[in-house]
Design goal:
With about 325 residues, the protein is of the alpha/beta class. Helices cover about 45% and strands about 20% of the residues. A seven-stranded parallel sheet has the order 3-2-1-4-5-6-11, sandwiched between helices. α13 crosses α14.
């Protein structure tokens, strides 16, 4: 039986790289799927390492719609992810996503997996209108659905990598603390992007009939800030004994972001992004059961992620 070619965009990034590596490391998957990894520069080391694992590495540019035909032609499936933060533009991101969708339709792709996110403006009924890096992806999902092409939609949860050394760090008083502008019982869908995106997306390609037209949520579980701190204490009892969680006022959160050089529009976007979780639910309150039920490998827990994170390497 001939293998199905799966085109993976962003193959040297966190999500795309995870998808490519997960398929390539899985004998069952590689017996059915051939990875065509797309990157702007096939000569860089991360691209060469994918080639060494067995991927076909090809140059491609999301901003060049015409070139996408040669990249996608003959493929059975496509995983597509875009990076809002590269150009800080939802318009650019939407144009890239819609171009991929158009080409998938023209080339007869049998399964497009779009890396989407909820439309926060709609979910919140206009209360949170400025989470552009979510809404742009959601608009592309809506467009893909309007085309009637066979597609499913992967939604990454809250990146665990955003915590160590940043919002969970050693404070000026020497104690470890965790601080976000949300209550300590807020549900956070924690996700190890680099290690687990591929587990979910690979399962989507291998369980096509179960997922077509559906959303698959990338998250291990909903954790609260209180749980995150408790598990940190259990892992590192010496430094963690005095660790605690603080609710940051919104203006203080924005001020911290401003000190890193973030402009006002990004400060407000990230504050609204945080408010999404306690006020409306990151995934609108949806269960993770269907998504987790697709997996053949266990997703990474917060404890395992923290235990192996370089920012916590010296802690006891």
């Amino acid at each position: 039986m001939a293998k199905h070619t799966i085109v993976v965009f962003g193959a040297t990034g966190k999500q795309g790289g995870s998808v490519a590596k997960s398929i390539l490391a899985d004998p069952k998957a590689t017996s059915q799927l051939h990875v065509k990894a797309i990157t702007r520069d096939p000569t860089k080391e991360s691209a060469k390492s994918l080639a060494a694992l067995g991927a076909e590495v090809v140059a491609g540019d999301l901003d060049d719609k015409d070139s996408l035909h040669s990249v996608i032609k003959g493929a059975y499936g496509v995983f597509s992810v875009t990076n809002f933060w590269e150009k800080f533009s939802a318009d650019v991101e939407e144009a890239q996503g819609k171009a991929i969708a158009d080409v998938c339709k023209a080339e007869g792709v049998k399964h497009l997996v779009w890396s989407s996110l909820p439309n926060v403006n709609k979910l919140s009924k206009g209360v949170l209108p400025a989470v552009y890096h979510f809404d742009g992806k959601a608009n592309v999902e809506e467009y893909i659905r309007s085309l009637g092409i066979p597609a499913s939609f992967f939604m990454a949860g809250f990146y665990m990598s955003n915590l160590p050394g940043m919002s969970l760090r050693q404070m000026p008083n020497g104690k470890w603390g965790f601080a976000l502008p949300i209550p300590d019982d807020s549900p956070i869908p924690m996700f190890d992007t680099a290690n687990d995106t591929g587990k979910f997306v690979k399962a989507m390609f291998l369980n096509e009939q179960k997922v077509l037209g559906k959303r698959v949520y990338g998250a291990t579980a909903y954790y609260t800030p209180a749980q995150i701190v408790q598990e940190f204490k259990e892992l590192f009892p010496s430094v963690g004994k005095d660790a605690g969680y603080s609710v940051l006022p919104g203006d203080v959160f924005k001020g911290i972001m401003a000190s890193t050089g973030a402009p006002e529009v990004v400060q407000e976007e990230m504050l609204q992004n945080m408010r999404l979780m306690p006020e409306f639910g990151y995934f609108g309150g949806d269960s993770l059961d269907f998504s987790l039920g697709l997996l053949s490998e266990k997703p990474t827990t917060w404890k395992d992620f923290a235990k192996n994170n370089p920012a916590f390497a010296t802690l006891k």
